Amino acid sequence: MQALYGQLVVGLINGSFYALLSLGLAVIFGMLNIINFAHGAFYMMGAFAAYFLLNWAGLGYWWALLLAPLMVGAVGVLVERTMLQWLTGLDHLYGLLLTFGLALVIQGVFQNEFGSSGLPYAIPAELRGAQNLGFMFLPNYRAWVIVFSLVVCLATWFVIERTKLGAYLRAATERPELVRAFGIDVPRMITLTYGFGVALAALAGVLAAPINQVRPLMGADFIIVVFAVVVIGGMGSIMGSIVTGFALGLIEGLTKYFYPEASSTVVFVIMAIVLLVKPNGLFGRTA
Amino acid sequence: MAEAANGALLTVAGLEAWYGESHILHGVDFHVRPGEVVTLLGRNGAGKTTTLKSVMGMIGKRSGSIRFDGAETIRLTSDRIARAGIALCPEERGIFASLDVKENLTLPPVVRPGGLSLDQIFELFPNLKERLGSQGTKLSGGEQQMLAIGRILRTGARLLMLDEPTEGLAPVIIQQIGRTIARLKQSGFTILLVEQNFRWASKVADRFYVMEHGRVVDGFASADLEANKQKLQDYLGV
């Protein structure tokens, strides 16, 4: 039974990363109509930013949690301003190819500099140790990742679904030219949205650094599953990303316990079934 | 069409506009004075909607001159034109499906003082108050038109541009919109209408311009409508 609970916690941890990453992808797709294949590279850059901050500037985990998303988010803003903005109105394929190429370049540069093996990043002193829940030991850091991710996801959902800024974002997703004609600087909003989505990926990278080590290909391994999560949740659906991210993490964990051979394919089997039954995803809006 | 435009709130001169390679407007000239209701008439494809969109800065490629309140706006982006005090109610209403009625109504930011309060808008369109929590696109066509007009009244824009506000609506709703325009005129709003229904427009407009093939080809005051009726019917093919 301990093993089952252990796998459930691992599932929730993975679910946290799935949710954070797919949330960023959903925000970017909803607003820019771009399938951001560079998302895994930005996730990796978040973890590396935390590593650099610690080893080059002496700034620890808590600073990294704040600064790494800002730094990588600024890179995202630069990418949107210099490259992605020129793809407005073109087919999805252009954005997909550009961001895919960008991911390869970024990962290649990091691999060239740091090799393929993982760099260690320690759990902050405040979050070491574990809690005895009676039926299992729950590591403090893992509990923190789950709770913090959930809070960030729900806060993002709240901003998008319940605030004025979110109303601008949702409206601009439908008719950007009309929202601009109401006096909103839509191009700036698009840039900042992309930066925010990228910052979410970087935040997930910082959270992952003490668990998964810091590796140039840490995002490449992850991003395919995250895209499956986005498809299952419904492209562009905020709540879909959050719920599906956590749920699929849990399902993966359960599969690891009951039928480990299928644990790496279960997400894709679910994706195939969802696409057959509900092509717009579980939370996707019909056109 | 080169009438004296002294004191005009909006003066459009030699306006040309393109959709991609298609040349749509070929030198449009007209003006709107403060407090006037001016209607652009013309057949489908004459360039009326493109003219409104060009004034609003929503057409990428345009040239000529558009002066609003004395300032040239031809090179401004649409968000800056909106902030200068022009608002557009588009032909297809532009109600956002992902927003409820209240969010749709309060979406355009207030760009300057002088706009209507929500209570004043509900006084004009009582239906909206009862449907505040509904999804915007779940409203009837008439209610959606009220919402589309209501939301630009909040902004404080001095020039309201309404593109075919009566299209596809029941007669009772058309009358209500006519009364609303009359009240807005009384309150000092300046209104530029695009309308196919010139009989309805004759009751609310002070002046008319007729457009053909991307140009303004004629213009007259409302008082002269009867004298120009045959000519107008020829223009509009009715």
TrEMBL record, chain A:
It is a multi-pass membrane protein. Pfam families: BPD_transp_2. Keywords: Amino-acid transport, Cell membrane, Membrane, Transmembrane, Transmembrane helix, Transport. This is ABC transporter permease. InterPro entries: ABC_transp_permease (IPR001851), BCAA_transport_permease (IPR052157). It comes from the Bacteria. Coiled coil: none annotated. GO terms for molecular function: transmembrane transporter activity. The chain crosses the membrane at residues 60-79, 91-110, 141-160, 190-211, 223-251, 258-277. GO terms for biological process: amino acid transport. Belongs to the binding-protein-dependent transport system permease family. LivHM subfamily. GO terms for cellular component: plasma membrane. It is found in: Cell membrane.
UniProtKB/TrEMBL annotation, chain B:
Residues 10-238 form the ABC transporter domain. Transmembrane segments: none annotated. One of its GO terms (molecular function) is ATP binding. Keywords: Amino-acid transport, ATP-binding, Nucleotide-binding, Transport. Pfam families: ABC_tran (PF00005). Belongs to the ABC transporter superfamily. Gene3D superfamilies: P-loop containing nucleotide triphosphate hydrolases. One of its GO terms (biological process) is L-amino acid transport. This is Histidinol dehydrogenase. CDD domains: ABC_TM1139_LivF_branched.
